[in-house]
Amino acid sequence: MSNVGSAVSDINGSSENVAHASSVDAEPVSGKVRARLKRAKQKAADAQVIVIETGRKSARAANDYAHDRPWTTAGVALGVGVLIGLLIGRK
């Protein structure tokens, strides 16, 4: 979210610089840009909430699976570890 905030700040600063450099009154344009930036920031925040909730649900499901089937989980982890080891060991 901090990246979105810094992008909004950068664009706000750029729009003010354009307004000062332009001979045309840029206040209506600047207002439109700020309104769109506000909507974009809100959509990014909404998407962030959705991603966090989906991640939490996935983590809970994985945790439940690992607790319900510990030997299966250990076997799969062992198999993946061996596969990665073989791939790294090949030179």
Task: Give me some keywords for this one.
single chain; about 90 residues; mainly alpha; 3 helices; YqjD/ElaB; transmembrane helix; ribosome binding; transmembrane; DUF883_C
Short description:
By secondary structure, the chain is mostly helical. It has one domain (about 1-90). The protein is about 90% helix and about 0% strand.
Descriptive overview:
Residues 1-29 are annotated as: Disordered. This is Membrane-anchored ribosome-binding protein, inhibits growth in stationary phase, ElaB/YqjD/DUF883 family. Residues 1-17 have a biased composition (Polar residues). The protein has 91 residues and is mostly helical. The chain has one domain (2-89). It is 90% helix and 0% strand. The protein is built from three helices and no strands. It has helices at residues 2-21, 27-68, 70-89. Helix 1 (2-21) packs antiparallel against helix 2 (27-68). It is elongated, with a radius of gyration of 25 Å.
